[in-house]
Amino acid sequence: MVITKAIIPAAGLGTRFLPATKAVAKELLPILDKPAIQYIVEEAVASGITTITMILNKHKTALINHFETAPELELILKERDKEKLLQSINKIIRHAEFTYISQGEPLGLGHATLLARHTVAKEYFGILLPDDLIAGGQPGLAQLIAIAQQENASVIAVQEVPIEQTASYGVIAIKKQISPVLYQINGLVEKPKPSQAPSNLAVVGRYVLSHKIFASLEAIAPYAQGELQLTDGIAHMLKNGEKVFAYKIQGHRYDTGNPLGLLKANIGIGLQHPDYGPHIQKLFEKKLIDAIAGNL
Questions:
Q1: Quick one: pLDDT at residue 197?
Q2: Rounded distance, CA 201 to CA 87, Å?
Q3: What is the number of other CB atoms lying within 10 angstroms of the CB of residue 217?
Q4: Which is nearest to 63 in space by CA: 114, 142, 135, 9?
Q5: 8 A C-beta contact, residue 140 and residue 41
Q6: Nearest of 131, 127, 109, 130 to residue 257 by alpha carbon
């Protein structure tokens, strides 16, 4: 099984970042010197993905521009011997082919996924949610691809959360534990109350799915109340005999879909950066010393 295609649903309005996102897509808000979405695409490319389909709304043309070449800017940078400033994004552009699909209304992750059906055909494919940044070690999607190839089945990423937080996530029901980090599942519950949660393993924004998810989403679409949820499509696959596994993804997850999460990502990733890290560390050390001195 070779997995080379991925979908990135990025049609959200970014209302939690207003007024900043009145003019700028939330996915383009920066983490250090790169927009948040670039970290997601870099993970996909590092995982062997060569074809990326982005689901956008009509106001996010700047996202398209970011992943296209800029000959005039490149010429200016070349004249100033600053070509390396675009090195990271140009590497992505050379290694991946991008397709863009407009989602007219925010009708759910399942609906966004279904829109990309024709770009996948009868293959396994990845989904990366841009609000979830997985930092450290092996690329997050690559971890799931390895499990999908091992089990010849769909696999979703999970992480442990405090039981009182389950109402904010989709939560898996475990059929069988294969290893300390791998589970076969028999169900998914969307945002259960803590007393009704089947586990404390919450779905995070990485999936490797069989193309059969599209038939399941089409089957349940007429009965969807409001938004068409991807978790409902996966549940339908399970009911129709498809095996689905959950893997405890390794790495630190940042939720960049809210201002505090984006700030934490800037600090956490900044501390690991060879240029910025020492300065941030000194700043924290000074603040700590000042705080201790103030209490003496």
A1: 92
A2: 38
A3: 25
A4: 9
A5: no
A6: 131
Helices (H), 152-276: 212-220, 230-239, 259-272
Pick out the chain residues at pLDDT < 50. 296
Residue 184 and residue 247: Cα distance in Å, rounded?
9
CA-nearest of 290, 44, 53 to 145 is 44
Give 239-265 pLDDT, tens digit per residue: 999 999 999 999 999 999 999 999 999
CA distance 3 to 170: 25
Indicate the fold that domain 5-257 takes in CATH: Spore Coat Polysaccharide Biosynthesis Protein SpsA; Chain A (3.90.550)
Residue 104 has, within 13 A of its CA and on its CB side, a CA count of 0
124, 134, 179: which is closest to 155 by C-alpha? Answer: 124
CB 52 within 8 A of CB 41: yes
| CA gyration radius, the chain | 20
Give the Cα separation of 225 and 256 in Å (integer).
27
Tens digit of each residue's pLDDT (9 = 90 or more) over 229-239: 999 999 999 99
The answer to whether the CB of 270 falls within 8 A of the CB of 277 is: yes
Q: H helices within 96-229, ranges in order?
A: 109-115, 117-120, 140-151, 212-220
